[in-house]
Every structure is written in structure tokens, then in C-alpha cells.
Amino acid sequence: MSLKNMKIIKLVLILILAASINVSAQELNARVSVVSSRVGTYVSPSTFTTLQTALNNFLNNRKWTTDNFGVNEKIDCNFSLNLEPTDEQNVYKATLMIQAARPIYNTSFLSPLVNYRDENIIFKYVEFQQLDFNENRVSGTEPLQSNLTAIFAYYAYMILGFDYDSYSLKGGIPYFQKAQNIVNNAPDGRGISGWKPFDNIRNRYWLVENMLNSRYNVFHDIYYGYYRMGLDQFYDDEKAARAQLLTVLDLLNTFNQENPNTMINQFFFQGKASEWINIFKKAMPQDKVKAAELLSKLDLTNSSKYKDELK
What we know:
49% of the residues lie in helices and 15% in strands. The chain is of the alpha+beta class. It has a domain at 217-311.
């Protein structure tokens, strides 16, 4: 075989390998930031740099589904872990801000999918500690160490669940079930909270419970209706898309009347106020009035904003 032919074969093999890596790319395009300004100088800053790198690798290098994602199909998400010291060495309390977005068909726009702050975080971390996670042994051997990876794995599956639900009706259920498995087998120990129904009325337990509770099945229709049948249709038919989104608001209103004060209703609206306003700002007057009325009732935090912007 000539040298030229060998080079051609080598090039083809490289291209095939590159294509196969691209096809089987991991699902998340996650960016994790660890903020340690409140911890103080008694812990080496390199500890938190190492932790940040380890968490980025944990989310981005792990295969969370059996599906193949192209690089451009990865789910954009951000995790901001704000640390606070405790009286115990190498143990930290924290708040975690989780944000994920989904592209809208035929636009460069990213729509908020998850925008949630979890304040029930406690974990133990020693620099260079391996971040282990096993779905069959979520609690691990050391609860405070395992709690960190259990929390991040839980939110990885919840993000996947909401993303899949936004593309196909009830498509996210397998990932919500994986998140529920983490809840059911979560680490249990001193100071650990957020995994049990009595810890709080809005926590990790209730979020996934709401998405798998058969009484709340309509929320799968709401996610699918809002994203796939609503926002994704704006490019082709703006009028029909707005009509669909009014239907989503009707579904949300009925749900809220039948199931007041559920976590999932509040969770759905977080980070979406500006988006709702932009959707209905150019709507027909009667549609704008109806949207403002429903939004003000359903999303109380932004009620005055809807009333002012959708006059």
C-alpha cells in the first residue's frame, strides 16, 4: 500500500471517530461556578477551584440517558453553588441556583426551562475527593459526601425531564422517575434536608412528586403546550401560537383552582415573566386583556408587572 493511500485511510478513520464522538456526546452543556467568598481564608482557595472543576466534569462527562445527543443539541444549564462555613471541618452549607434553557425553533432565542434556588444544601468535601454517584446506592457510605452528588444528579435528571417534556408529551417521565429514585434513596444524616415531604412545602421531594403525581398529569400537557405547540410555532404562525399559549394559561388557571399552592405552579412561572409579556404585548386587545388577567392571578410575584406592561 502506498504512503498516500495509508494517509487517506488514516484521515477517513479520524473523521469516522470524530463523527462517532459527536453523535454520542453527553446531554448537558453545564457550567458550574463555586462561590466561596463567605468561607474565609482558613480553607485554601484551590479546594474550591478543584471542587468547581470536579462538578463540571461530573455533569458534563457523565452519560445521563441512552439517547445520542449532537453537540448542538446539548442542554444549556448553569449551576451556581454559594458556600457558607459550618462548625465542622470540610463541611459546608450552600444555596444552589439552577438555570436551564431551551432553544426556540427557527430563532436564536433561549427560553427559560428551569430557574430555581435550592437553599437546603449541606455536604462534606475534601480537596481531590472523588465525586462518586451510583443510582443503585445513592446514599453511598458517607451521607454528607454523597449528598453533594445526589443533589447534582437529581437536578440533572429534572432538567432532562423538563427538556424532554417540552419536546414530546410526557417524554420526560423516565427522567423524573430517575430523580424520584434519588429522592427515595437519598442520603440521610445530621443536617441533611430537602429530600423529605416534611422538610418543607417546596423542596426536591415535592418538585418531582408534583411531576409524577397522576392528579397533576395536566402539567405534562402544559409543558408540551407551552414550548412545542406554542413557542416553537411562533415563526410559522404567530396568531395560532398565541391562541395555544392562551389555552396553556386556561389549563394553568384550572389546575391552580383545583390544586392551590402547589410547588410546580410557582416553579413553572419562575424566570418567565418577561417572556409572557413579550408574547402578548402585540396580541389583539381582547387576548392581551385575558392574558394579563390570568397571568396576574397565576404569577402573583409579577402581578403588577403584567398589569403595567399588558395594558
